[in-house]
## 1
Amino acid sequence: MRSLLLFGDSNTHGTMPMPDLDFDGRFDRDERWAGRLAKLLPDWEVIAEGHPGRTTVHDDPVEGAHRNGLTVLPALLESHRPLDLVLVMLGTNDLKERFSVNACDIGLSLERLVRVIKVSEAGPAGAAPGVLLVAPPPILEVGCLAGMFAGGAAKSQGLAREIGAAARRAGVAFLDAGQVVQVSPVDGIHYGAEANPALAEAFAAAITAHFPD
């Protein structure tokens, strides 16, 4: 059985769209796209590592330095190895106004994460795991998260282009989730229930195509 690590943020965690900042709803395990993906890939062990608020490479001065993806990635690669494949879907939280980064910076940050994976020796027999780099869909500035992500909607329109370019430079597989799902109009960041089966099916198809037996 091959192993797949899903390295992401709240949208990998299964966080529901938030009507207010106190809301902490999470889709049931079998309803989340990660759980659905596991059922579509019965020959894979699917390991969901989604942390709400996770950034690519930034210590969050408000929500905590532990949300820095670059900091935690090496430990996760070691704890779950051997890994055949790592699916990376990050970048949305980098759009928060507090980080002052643009789509190009986010693409470069994701490219750095890919380099960490490729030199990790966390794959079978000490090789590098494969990588599927995913661009999250553009965001909206609505609801309770609008202030936190002020200015992010315009920046997010360039994410797919920049992350796709990063994937090409790094020589890894790429998928644009914005061609598959949209963010919820409730908070402009998280995905509604309808996105779960769509993402699972798109990821399963991409994994089967790029990483055949």
## 2
Amino acid sequence: MNRLDVTEKIISTKVAKGLTWAGVAKKVGQSKEWTTALCLGQMTATPEQAKVVGKIFGLTTEEQKWLQVVPYKGSLPTPVPTDPLIYRWYEIVSVYGTTIKELIHEEFGDGIMSAIDFSMDIERQADPKGDRVNVVLSGKFLPYKQY
């Protein structure tokens, strides 16, 4: 057994039971974005969170322990993603990455936006021309230090 086996069991159970990530997140007590990342193998659960997820998805004690292991982050199977939705994010970074970098540096200086001290919010935005996906990414700015 490994973390991927646990992830596949979670996804299968989610489909079989007709669960939503928002519903799971409410029981876990975290955002739907973080909870989904946890269940897909990209975050680390506390023992309490692992127990809640275990109850929801019928995980054994051993499977719950896998949720508490720090994962190998980065889940894409290929360097350039082939899934259309994920590819569009890749395209956004390819096209606008230098613009984002330039504007962050202009506003904050030489540094990076943290993906560790980070939050994300994804919401549906009603629009008469077709609903829109509203994504807010918020990461702490970490300046490069001089030494």
## 3
Amino acid sequence: MQSNGQLTFSLLSASEIAAALDDLARLRISVFAAWPYLYAGDAAYEARYLAQFAASEGAVVIAARDPAGRMVGAATAAPLADHASEFAIPFARAGLDPADYFYLAESVLEPAWRGQGAGKRFFEMREAAGRAQGFGRAVFAAVVRPEDHPARPADHVPHDGFWRRRGYRPLEGLVAQFRWPDLGATEETTKPLQVWGREL
């Protein structure tokens, strides 16, 4: 268990992940409702998605808890070969074996706790978990929205700089396609997600 003075971070064991899924679903629905995901959360979808994630023997959850012990943030990872097929498809098309990559999935944190180093800790602990499982490469995917999207906040600062400082770069030609309903929409639409990666 690690602490940054206020938040406490822990790597959940396989037996602890199932008990954390409700908190993870709550955080995903809340945090991903904001730009750039604009995700209209659905409990049934979350249950299906997280059940698939938790079934992976290599699944990892980093829990961030406040001083009262409440989970206020989480980051997840799993072998890419075990994750949603939408993320493996562009790798297969490029002639790359998904089994070679550790996939860093969610990184969600309640707004009140941002700016205290949680993002760095989430990456460090997931990368360490990937190395411990024998992976030499880590990847994640970030949604790409049009510059003129009407919901883009005027003060939005992309995370690209933070990701690059951690050694990640966009992987040319690797773009996943994933579907979810935007806030206010009645149907799911397909969004492109750019894959970023680095050597571990």
